[in-house]
Model the fold of this input.
Amino acid sequence: MSVDMRTYLGHVELVNPIITAAGCAASGSELAQFFDLGRIGALTTRSITMAPRAGRPTPRMAETPSGMLNAIGLQGPGVDAFLERELPWLAQRSVRTVVSIGGGTVAEYTALARRLTDAPGVSAVEVNLSCPNIEDRGRVFARDGAASAEVIASVRSVMRYDVPVVAKLSPDVMDVVSVARACVDGGADALSMINNPLGMSIDTEAMRPSLAAVTGGLSGPAIRPLAVRCVWQVHAALPGVPIIGMGGVLTGRDAFELILAGACVVAVGTALFHDPYACLRILRELEELLAARGFHRLADAVGLAHRPPGASTRHRIDLEESSL
Amino acid sequence: MSVDMRTYLGHVELVNPIITAAGCAASGSELAQFFDLGRIGALTTRSITMAPRAGRPTPRMAETPSGMLNAIGLQGPGVDAFLERELPWLAQRSVRTVVSIGGGTVAEYTALARRLTDAPGVSAVEVNLSCPNIEDRGRVFARDGAASAEVIASVRSVMRYDVPVVAKLSPDVMDVVSVARACVDGGADALSMINNPLGMSIDTEAMRPSLAAVTGGLSGPAIRPLAVRCVWQVHAALPGVPIIGMGGVLTGRDAFELILAGACVVAVGTALFHDPYACLRILRELEELLAARGFHRLADAVGLAHRPPGASTRHRIDLEESSL
Amino acid sequence: MRETPVTPVQVTGTVLTTRRVDAYHALTVVAPGIAERFRPGHFVSVAVGGAQTSTLTRRAFSIHDVKPDYSGTVEFVFTVRGPGTAWLAERRARDTLDLVGPLGRPFPLPRDPVTCVLVGGEYGSATLFTVADALQQRGCRVDFVLGAASADRVFGALRARRMGETTTLTTEDGSLGLRGRVTDVLPGVIADVRADVVYACGPMPMLRGVTAVAVEFDIPVQVAVEERMACGIGVCMTCVLPVIGDDGVTRMVRSCVEGPVFRGERVRFDDVGTIPFDALGAPGGGSRNVG
Amino acid sequence: MRETPVTPVQVTGTVLTTRRVDAYHALTVVAPGIAERFRPGHFVSVAVGGAQTSTLTRRAFSIHDVKPDYSGTVEFVFTVRGPGTAWLAERRARDTLDLVGPLGRPFPLPRDPVTCVLVGGEYGSATLFTVADALQQRGCRVDFVLGAASADRVFGALRARRMGETTTLTTEDGSLGLRGRVTDVLPGVIADVRADVVYACGPMPMLRGVTAVAVEFDIPVQVAVEERMACGIGVCMTCVLPVIGDDGVTRMVRSCVEGPVFRGERVRFDDVGTIPFDALGAPGGGSRNVG
Ligand SMILES: Cc1cc2nc3c(=O)[nH]c(=O)nc-3n(C[C@H](O)[C@H](O)[C@H](O)COP(=O)(O)OP(=O)(O)OC[C@H]3O[C@@H](n4cnc5c(N)ncnc54)[C@H](O)[C@@H]3O)c2cc1C
Ligand SMILES: Cc1cc2nc3c(=O)[nH]c(=O)nc-3n(C[C@H](O)[C@H](O)[C@H](O)COP(=O)(O)OP(=O)(O)OC[C@H]3O[C@@H](n4cnc5c(N)ncnc54)[C@H](O)[C@@H]3O)c2cc1C
Ligand SMILES: Cc1cc2nc3c(=O)[nH]c(=O)nc-3n(C[C@H](O)[C@H](O)[C@H](O)COP(=O)(O)O)c2cc1C
Ligand SMILES: Cc1cc2nc3c(=O)[nH]c(=O)nc-3n(C[C@H](O)[C@H](O)[C@H](O)COP(=O)(O)O)c2cc1C
Ligand code: FES
Ligand code: FES
Done:
């Protein structure tokens, strides 16, 4: 039962494909109480912003069927405090760290990237494109391929060549493949999907929106079918681009589903709220599933569900046609 | 406990706001075994096409967390058989009928509408815009405001003036409000939302897509937060336009949620698969909820969650600021 | 428009007994409205997972037995496959269960006292005993052929031995009866007993094989198929398979309301999972615009 | 970065007993790891709905009691509000329950044997008895003020009478003790017993009122707040409220890890549900770019 679980984001090797999703693991120290963060592929930070942010008013959360809505509003300490306290804490413990960044203008994203360039301990930068573009009437970058590409190109141009830049996509678009392609053309080394689709719920007692912010991001198993579809479509169109898949992963089976669709890394978000050990459990379950199906390497399973109807699994594995 | 449950789609009065969703009640006779169809607001037909259609291969269904994926492919008897057998059956029983139509070109939608013009028993026409536009590389009409508006304008121009034309929108767009606005500008008397977002699941045993059609439409409670958000946004932007809300309604509470968001009619789809009596149960629960909260008229609850933070419910009801 | 012969009802029944039968679970549920309307071949659909469940679609199970106790009980037999059946396996006496039934078109019964071979695969055998009962009441001779992968998955062997003139068992691993499949022994049984008709319930590949045998002997065969179902009442269109109609035209028909029982030779087994090019309404097919 | 003083653990505990206490349900669960780490004021979070549940977020409950039986049990008391608590109310002895705990910062205890008034509202009272116990072990005097809407919602009146020097009860409908709210009687109690410190747990409006009274008397007050929580372990950022830090700066702090116990006067009760303009990182606030 020894499966080679290593995977790659660009040139960065991760010991295994299970990482935390942005904004779902706070500063890292909270989860470190439960397990050694070095045992997972990487930790993704919350989306770091230039200034400290107090976020949105409460209620920030509402439960929905097999999911939840959140409207946190990128609460965080700002990049200075992040570089002073949170990143060094992770670096000291040799935790592979994907730093998520969020901004309101291309310039702000770029400035953030510049601040990260010399910081030790940045394994990759994930660009959270689901932020309102204050120069385009608050339209979210991720909904517009050109705006997304501009952010990515600018971030890519200032980041160190050996730090992959990951573009995080939203499902709230007409055609996720065209946004993905624009980001790759703009220089993205990898893609990450999906960020939360926009949802809403109403408190039928108060007869008001449940969230103070009215709308919020939907997460959890409810959105997994959207995540699988986005990963599938993008992997089919851009088979060479590494994908971080996420959206409603609760179990090893769910992670395997995203891997079969084309993800080479799987991020766990909402499941962490339910089970602080979720990442390790999912990793174990995934490894067992792979072993039970005779895989020697995780890489051989990536995108495997795309093989043509007649083709057997063996065939694919023997030819080592992995998409990595 | 007597609440006035009447509601209006344009000038068409429905005895109550609970109707079936397109494609979820087959020809009507199947549900008629369980209850008198005259007791619900209306029955929406499956999307009628010009020619008979065999639909998609099986498996056509996969269960997902709090939802399901379907890829039926508009299986149906075609408009001739529909007009010969299904519509007369409904008309004989005085069942209010919303006829859903689906086509591959503007011309096909228009031809369908023309066939319906003189048919007795058509209360309204719902235009299923989530069909691939064969003149635009299969891009779904609903994803493009201009294409949607063109279909609506053409259908509107041939339908009798007293039969409302309802545009059915998809959540898989960058901005549902702009598509809604285009449809209303094109002549839609009402809007219906949401059709199924595109999803996918993979059978991790077979390591293949669960559906023969690979992707399918996601329905059920999982998508209710998307439906509430779309209804809310469109009602906020176009407060005078009647909205048929749908997406994951299982209970009277869920219907009330969509009504508070701005729907004046609520369609029930997937819930019918779980509970053949769903429409009547939801209607009863909704009426009880309204009565318990002191409403005398359903109309007073429509869009009520939009009232400004300070405003009380009473205020709204007293001024009869209903959005109908 | 074909009317379903029996009007189904929805009932919240109480679980009376639960039992294990080798590899299977069996639940007996008090459901008078369903028991009273039951005819052999009917199935029920069951809501699973309880109040806050994330599993929304009903699960279909053939009715194994109905009894008059407590104004009417139904029993079904199942194997644990996924979350729904796992949840059902945890039910205990006095729990409530939401059932809709009886569903589907039952097995048509011959008018005359003919000789019938009843073929069951895995839990499919569970459906056959009420059929056998009805046949015997009409003076028919009944012979059983039951098979499964292994001994613990052959359902109802004892009861078959009690009821049938002959009972032939097969297992793929040889742990009970003859090693092999039911289709290996079926020709012999048909010839020996001079069968007039075959009734079959089991996995689709078995039904295909059984149908082929019956066709070879030129005797009628009634099969109860199993397709993925979301509603069981004919409204969702997920459970279709290609079936040749009386007019010779292939249509994608719903197995929940137009089946699950079909004349075997009418089912295009080789084309299940596809839309045959000559089916009514097939994409680009010649039958477009055929009413 | 503040470290949570106690490391929480996740345990799958067995329900030992279930009981009704007036309007409330109480569950005792065998959870040695949690019981052993417990300090008064801690809470647990509970997974609800079973294997296929659609309710994904954990539910938070104050720990009412811990006992050494079966290597350690914890008990919590709850009222049925929505689907999660409805499901919990259906649990029976021997069912298993997935708990994470102990969570949060417990009540700080005074070094000296001072006089403490413990104020509880509704099920908030359930938290106070382990506090009272710890205080009495340090030689403190304990007086109770418990209130609720009606008699059946006043939790622990009997136990308070046994443990406290004095116990004052209030109900809004006058069905038990004095008609009114705890804040109506609290000034009198504080004055009578010459209280040195107040401990409070209950609904937010009550905590605000209790804090105002304590501030008026210029004595410290420790309140355990209740905010909507999704994770309970500090990773989701949903449970924040504006709290003034030692440096005088208001921050949106997580009540699950930095609370639920706070010094009352530090909580900006009037601004709960908003981002005060002067909070660190408030939109457009003067504190932008403050590290
Ligand atoms: C007419 C009919 C009679 C049946 N009788 C029996 C019986 O007597 N005993 C028995 O053990 N099983 C029977 N089945 C199969 C049974 O319905 C499935 O095993 C069961 O639905 C699986 O549910 P699950 O949650 O365990 O699995 P999952 O795979 O998680 O089910 C997911 C979804 O797929 C559907 N599904 C999955 N497999 C099947 C299947 N084989 N047939 C239909 N729907 C499926 C379920 O209804 C559900 O909607 C019958 C099926 C049909 C159509
Ligand atoms: C630190 C703390 C201690 C608590 N102690 C107790 C206790 O001892 N006894 C008791 O009866 N209740 C207690 N509560 C409140 C309890 O958590 C809620 O009543 C419960 O979560 C409601 O769940 P539900 O499914 O019944 O309701 P729903 O309203 O359906 O819950 C939906 C979601 O909102 C959250 N939620 C709803 N109300 C609250 C609330 N008031 N506080 C926190 N989250 C909420 C739930 O966790 C869930 O995620 C406590 C809350 C906190 C934060
Ligand atoms: C509470 C919460 C906070 C989140 N914060 C961020 C964030 O700061 N940046 C980001 O890119 N995504 C954020 N996300 C989105 C997640 O990273 C993830 O894309 C999404 O939740 C889907 O995965 P899940 O279903 O496993 O949670 C957040 C999600 C949640 C639930
Ligand atoms: C099996 C199935 C078939 C459907 N067929 C159609 C259709 O023919 N035309 C259409 O406009 N919508 C169709 N829909 C979409 C529904 O009408 C509805 O918009 C959607 O399912 C959301 O509602 P629900 O969650 O209550 O099912 C179908 C949905 C399902 C589940
Ligand atoms: S299962 Fe729904 S139509 Fe047959
Ligand atoms: S509940 Fe998640 S941070 Fe407090």
